[in-house]
Amino acid sequence: MLDALRALPRTVWLIGFISLVNDTASELVYPLVPLFLTSVLMAGPKALGLIEGIAEATAALLKLVSGVAVDRTRRSKPWIVIGYALAALGRPLIALVTSWPALLAIRFADRVGKGLRTSPRDALLAASVGPDRRGLAFGVHRAMDNAGAVLGPLLAAGLLAAGMPLRDVLLWTLVPGVLCVLLTLALPEAQAAAAPVASSAPRPTLAGWASLPPGYRRFLAVVALFTLGNSSNMFLLLRASELGVPQAQVPLLWAAVSAIAMLLSAPLSGLSDRVGRRALLLAGYGAYALFYLVLGLASPTGAWLVLWFAFYGVFLAATEGVEKALVADLATPEQRGTAFGWFNMTAGAMLLPASAAFGWLYEQIGVQAAFGFSAGCALAAAALLRWWVPGVQEA
């Protein structure tokens, strides 16, 4: 494994480090936004819901637009630089706002940046390695991304505990933001992205769904079904609180989940290069279904609950990087940006109905129905992946 990691191209490590720095700043801000909104701007949950709903919907749509743009322009780097620059500018500006509509405008700009950079970054990462190392490359990226998800909340808690005012904490996010932009300027442009499109290759358009490979389109349907049962992780933290985890320890529980995902993402995603993507995803979807069934029906408490959330971190490690590696496997090089655009948009767009359905079931019928629905979606997605999706890499 160490030799394989050392052999990865510089571009893979640079993209991973950019994500680590950016996610540290992003995850530092994310848990502070509700606190800033309620304690400083004196707004309520309705405003928070409107802000986050508009922001995430914007990001989901632009992930498709930017993916198509990569295939049309044959360039990834400009979109990545602009995307990270918008985030670097938006985060510290939150400290200066005096009303929630202004906060909405800044969060909107931040999510525009995420939408512009995500699919081009994934396409550049996929073009940087061959298929035999694609799982490991995406696993390393996910590991470093999850490292930021661990460091950010811990850094926020430490700064606030040290007495730094909330606005000052937000202003200091300018430093990692500027570092991210400088690092993106050092990224190379992938040769595959810069090469001219063959005359026989289909020209990517927003309406070019039918020109994507059939195996990829079926896999995207599997992703949509699975994501329908993959609601906001906030519900998991709510359930943990109901099962006895003290409120002050809930963020630490989630940091532990991110830490497990960080440690295991590279080895598990790299394993898919040897045993096949399908095997890892089937195991991951099955683990997700088991996790939700136990959390909804068995009600673990104490140390068992902590161990069970650690198991959820294993699921994240076994699926996040592997899914993206599989997108690159199933798409042609000329349509890789478009393929990542459709994948990222679908996964993002399905989060709203997923959370709405889960919340309705949770409140109107009960916790067993909500968690059972999610487990059922995961098992159905696994069955479709096993018997319906062609062209998936096998061992």
From TrEMBL:
InterPro entries from the UniProt entry: MFS, MFS_dom, MFS_trans_sf, Sugar_transporter_CS
Membrane topology summary: Multi-pass membrane protein
Boundaries of every Major facilitator superfamily (MFS) profile domain copy: 11-393
Keyword Transmembrane helix: yes
Molecular functions (GO terms): transmembrane transporter activity
Transmembrane segments: 12-33, 53-70, 82-106, 169-187, 219-238, 250-269, 275-295, 302-319, 339-362, 369-389
CDD domains: MFS_MJ1317_like (cd17370)
Coiled-coil annotated spans: none
Primary site of residence: membrane
Pfam families: MFS_1
Record's keyword terms, sorted: Membrane, Transmembrane, Transmembrane helix
SUPFAM superfamilies: MFS general substrate transporter
Domain of life: Bacteria
Localization in the cell: Membrane
Cross-referenced Gene3D superfamilies: MFS general substrate transporter like domains
Gene Ontology cellular component list: membrane
Name of the protein this chain belongs to: Multidrug resistance protein MdtH
